[in-house]
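worker-03 picked up job from queue 'complexes'. Input manifest follows; two sequence lines, order preserved.
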Amino acid sequence: MSFSSYFSNRRKLVALGWLAFLLLVAALADWLPLPYAPGDSDLTHLSEPPFTALAASRHWLGTDPLGRDLLAGLVFGARTTLIISIPAALLAVGVGILLGSAAGFWGNTSLRVSLGHCFGVGGLLLTGFLSIFRLWPAPELAWPLTATSFALVSLLATRHVELLQRVTLTFPVDQLVMSAIALLESIPRLILVLVIASVQESSVFTLLLVLSLTYWTGPARLIRAEVMRIRALPYIEAVRATGLTNMSILIYHVLPNASRSVRTAFPLSIAALIGLETTLSFLGIGLPTEIASWGRLMATARLDSAAWWLIVEPGLLLLGTMLALRQLARPDEHTGK
Amino acid sequence: MLRLLLTRLLRLLPVTWGIVSVFFLLSRALPDDQLLARAIESQLDTGSRAITAPQRQALELQLRRRLGLDKPVFYFSIQRSATGGQSHWRWHGLRNQYHLWWLDVVRGELGRSYRDNKPVASLLIETLRFTLPFTAAAAFLAIGAALWLSLWMTRHSRWRSYLLTILYSLDALPLFVVALVLLYLLANPDMLALFPVYGFDNPEPTDTWLANVGSYLHHLALPVFSLVLITLPGLVTQLDASLQHELQTAYAVTARAKGLAFRQVVRHHTLRNALLPVVALVTDLLPAMVAGAVVVEVIFALPGMGRLLADAAAARDYPVLQGSVLLIASVRLLSHIVADGLYWQLDPRLRSQL
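worker-03 finished. Artifact:
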């Protein structure tokens, strides 16, 4: 989809404009001339409605029942939301593309790995894992194991060792990936995230990791189905006949077509992650209490039943953002698809 | 049929075992000092009574032993020595927390809550007795409303696009926003106080059962309504899309051409085929409702399983969390099997494939 077709559609233009504004405000949150900091309590102005601000108080959008300025909360909440949802969506889609395309492309039977490669890569992974977490039972084993794995991999790369290459194992990629997906989807996502976030230290980075590690299953399913469809098309057969390796067929010929659905759905992934993040913050789980967030802001509405602005203002921001993201993911009306 | 369901069960059991195990190990990886400190404070009934450090240590040790936290977590452990490089791998045998926990689960014991020392199984049953009727009612209402709406839309095509737009924007909002807005508009002394704000009245012995039922329904109206509202868009759009698709097929045109009324074509011919893709959505509905119940029960302060889960997550009450994860994963597993059985019944074409 080119840029010109984006701009030919007025609704998409509005959506794009709103998202750009939100991104700009979030990025410049620290330098904006806000009268108050997001965490500060102004005890002389509790639950002040918006637009009634006298020159003295300057709470333009009102305050919550704890006296915190709503404008600052909204700006910094936007930053928190975007800082979590965009990287999490990128990471989730990345992992989803990696695993889903491997599962769809090789299936259960066609990834045949020679025994030597199995040992070599397995040894490298093991040494890597053990060294990262410093879990060596005997440190004197570290160097020999790493050296052997390197030697095995490089020997096989030169294709001189017949014996280690002839014996191959089939690697059931599809089954492994699908059971990982089944594992993660056996529990509703909100509950999974809630439960995992509750047993971790709460921080922005952990929440980001937890969200992306639970969200990759959707993109992976999409990509897997597309890759399985494209793998059987004639042009792939033609490419295969030219003698390209599996890896380059997958990367240069299958993925550009297969990833289209995931690329179009990318704004929807961001929207879903924003929904999850705000819900979690509303429940008071996942983010440390001192970090401003739209969900936490709306949770304070229950302290004061008359404070409509605590629901309306973050709610409208959320609705606008979600609708804008969905608008971007919609098929273009001019081209029909 | 039975063989199919049995093989499905055998294939899905490891998944349940996996997710519960992963969660168990994750939850035990966190240091438990804070948790123990809180548990000790809650056990000392008088907050003012100060205890000496050795007393406190003894109490902590006692508590650890009672909760089974003094044993190793898994079959083996790796201890990193403080000086660097070297670390010790140790084999613990079967007397570890993980093994003992599964033994207890097999015997039907889910442990006791860290917070109030109640057995987890009875806590879960107690809350399920509330949550199950509540979510089931919401699910049935949502399915009924979705069917009615999509049938209505086939006849009033002028309203169709408006309705779809409304549902589309409703779908964009997270559940907690919808529930909060409903709560604010309809159960607020400053706006319209049509419904009670939260909680439940304790049934008075003097009241008639009719009054009790009335009060129950009155309290549940808003929570059920918000759950229905949030599940409706997905169901309606899916059902509407498949109905529109079926109405353009050749057999629908034939049925119309032989002189059947439009209503009859929809009811007897297209609807049955259009329902097929919706079955998958419907079987996903109950787990989704449990997730929705977390938010709704917190907002309306209802004593259900969702709130138990949210409170346990906030307080890091692991036995309760583990019990709920086990329960929800098994329900999900069962619903998968029910979906397979339903497909088998509904679509004879699939019988050769499954």
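worker-03 released lock.
Chain B touches chain A through 57 residues (CB under 8 Å).
Chain B has a mean pLDDT of 79.
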